[in-house]
Amino acid sequence: SQKIEQNSEALNIQEGKTATLTCNYTNYSPAYLQWYRQDPGRGPVFLLLIRENEKEKRKERLKVTFDTTLKQSLFHITASQPADSATYLCALEVGAGSYQLTFGKGTKLSVIP
Amino acid sequence: EAQVTQNPRYLITVTGKKLTVTCSQNMNHEYMSWYRQDPGLGLRQIYYSMNVEVTDKGDVPEGYKVSRKEKRNFPLILESPSPNQTSLYFCASRRQGTYEQYFGPGTRLTVT
Question: Which of A36, A62, B22, B81 could cross-link to A44 by cystine, CB 3.0-4.6 Å?
Answer without folding.
Answer: A36
